[in-house]
Design brief:
By secondary structure, this protein is an all-alpha fold. It has one domain (about 5-65). The protein has helices at about 5-25, 30-65. α1 runs antiparallel to α2. The radius of gyration is 17 Å and the shape is elongated. It starts with a helix and ends with a helix.
Amino acid sequence: MNPAASRLAALTKELYEQWQRTKESWSDAKCQEFERQYMLELFSSVDKTVAVIEQLDKILDRIKHDCA
């Protein structure tokens, strides 16, 4: 995996774990709203971004191979 994608995935995993700990002490309606509005969207976007970075990395590898 591309180092940037790996780092992004690792940092997002760390954020997810922190968010889970936060929800242990903050579990009201505002917490749920915040999660829906920001956290779930962020996690989804990061997953998509990591996939795109991996695809771009494969394309770049093919280009390097074809141009060598």
